[in-house]
Amino acid sequence: MSVLQIGAGGVGGVVAHKLAMNAKTFGEITLASRTLSKCQEIAKSVLEKTGVQIQCKSVDADSVDELVALINEIKPKVVINVALPYQDLSIMEACLRTKTHYLDTANYEHPDTAKFEYKEQWAFDKAYKEAGIFALLGSGFDPGVTNVFCAYAQKHYFDEIHSIDILDCNAGDHGYPFATNFNPEINLREVSSKGRYWQEGKWIETEPMEIMQVWDYPEIGEKDSYLLYHEELESLVKNIKGLKRIRFFMTFSQNYLNHMRCLENVGMLRIDEVEHNGSKIIPIQFLKTLLPDPASLAGRTIGKTNIGCYITGLKDGKEKTIYIYNVCDHQECYKEVNSQAISYTTGVPAMIGAKLIVEGKWGGEGVFNMEELDPDPFMEELNTQGLPWKVLEF
Ligand code: NDP
Known about the structure:
It comes from Helicobacter brantae. This protein is of the alpha/beta class. Helices cover 38% and strands 27% of the residues. The structure holds NADPH dihydro-nicotinamide-adenine-dinucleotide phosphate (NDP).
């Protein structure tokens, strides 16, 4: 038995530690990324914390040929993609060519367009079916656990779900004037884009940060939360029958928003090439170089996250509302795996998805989103692997 993880950033660090903590299930663990030294740093921490030795490799995940060679060498049961969304298609293609199961945490984004959608990944469905392999898309927290929460609510709490509000609150404080909790380029592209939600069969577009609502988060309190478009909306609209409205909200402080608006106004969020002193640079990539590495926020971030789904609908003819959520503490994550909670809440579900695939509890032929699988084994694993959840019934 062996498993191949690609990507050694903030999320990658958590996945590697969690794979090692479940080494009996995964067998030989190989961590590959573009920069070998980052894999080696993670491997050192994994060895210190768990006593498990993981293998390190360098790979350019934009090259299908390099990936195929690596997969053929390792022969993993599943490839866990926690590199960047830009690499999704090349890694899916390499898995197809080698007939290997695939898992990721974020849907494909083209580097030149700040837009994400499942179209290109869903297009692999027929080929994956023919090859008899399984692709699990979006096995992070949101997307990921939020999709599983919806499937669990559908299975155990409702006959019909009418509305879903996915709420993502990070009440952590890292002490820097400005930093992002995961890859700055991906994060800033997402939050500076137009908002979008789905109601009565139609997508409704909003200006960035146009809709603000105050939500009261258990164990945290009231926070300004802004409507964003988020990728799980696309698959949940397709897979939760009877849905009338679905929205996604994320908390931001005024300080974060002021910095972001200023960076946008001066052109630092541009994703096209500009001439600078005779060479070409992409402003948002240069900004990434200047900002703190998200992995370095671990250790200095205090506070908690609360991410969950506020769901309304009908049960036995009566109206019902629940909030199903997880609370995660930044400092606890640091103690366990040297990470902050955003990377932790993404990395743990990636490991759980892979574990269910390896154990044969989740599988199939083709390309799947999380809510299409039985939520129960995943929900059980969340409770034992560090992300316990609660349900409030109103
Ligand atoms: P980081 O930028 O910290 O790490 C990305 C890693 O991918 C780095 O190790 C980087 O290597 C590697 N990488 C980039 N390009 C290549 C390439 N061509 N070949 C090989 N390796 C490459 O990102 P995060 O860890 O913060 O995020 C990882 C993923 O998790 C992203 O896709 C992000 O969107 C997703 N995510 C999902 C969430 C969810 O809840 N579903 C929440 C948060 C993040 P190098 O160091 O050499 O650049």
